[in-house]
Amino acid sequence: MTNLTIRRLLIDLETPVARHWCGGDAFLTAWFNALSMSFPVGEQFFIDAVREGAKALPADQQARWEAEIKGFVGQEATHRRIHALFNAQIEKHGLVNAWAPRAESRMVLFEGADPRHPLGVTAAYEHFTALFAEWLLSHPQVLDGSEPRLQTLWLWHSAEEAEHKSTAFDLYQALGGDHAWRAKWMRRVTVFFLSDALRQTVSNLRRDGTLWRWSTWRSAARHLLGRQGLLRTNWPAWRAYFRPDFHPNQQHSERSATWLREHNEQFVPVSAAGR
Ligand SMILES: [Fe+2]
Ligand SMILES: [Fe+2]
């Protein structure tokens, strides 16, 4: 069982956000904006999947899971709220969120499904989020030149994603979810996640008028495919998910605890019971 703290972030998201808030880099801004656009809808799906999964546990196991489920739901609910505030700011830049409605139209397919299916999907997305989180925590220079409040937003979210990266996976296993379906969902989620993220990034860049700038493509190549790039450095960790004995805890995330310890003036812990 993982002990998860719910934290209220003490940052201002009422003040407008600069158009190229990520250090003046159009690509990085568009990429982070795209991810943020998916969070309110996506994280609600994860919350629902975990809640429904917990209800399907045998009665004698439910008490053991209660605290972790509350922690997971509380963390994701906080992320949703904060990113909705952030999204309201970036939409003032003329960006249009096409990812969320597309994802919502797919989610309908899970109504009435065995709870292990949405959980398998959630576990796969949570692996992606954990990889992204670890990459960002280990390359915080990506956010250099961004306002401190926005650095905090992204690094806090990353730290909590690393903290709860096992919850959906463990619940899937506890419900007897098998390896074949887990791998199948990861293959599908990979296609959806990468195509959705790239489509939304391109849309953001097009609306921003920076899609065809050389600097945009140079930044994309460097940050996605370069030696320290997101896709290139995470390829082995992504593949590991297909091993039958894979567990999220096999991949280290000590940077999460360090960041939370060193920045504890930027949030206040709240009790799960109080929410
Ligand atoms: Fe989250
Ligand atoms: Fe998460």
TrEMBL record:
Hydrolase as UniProt keyword: yes
Q: Which UniProt keywords apply?
A: Hydrolase
UniProt-recorded Gene Ontology molecular function terms: hydrolase activity
- The keyword Hydrolase appears for this protein: yes
Question: What Pfam families has UniProt attached to this entry?
Answer: Metal_hydrol
Q: Which InterPro entries match?
A: UCP07580
Q: In its UniProt entry, what is this protein called?
A: Metal-dependent hydrolase
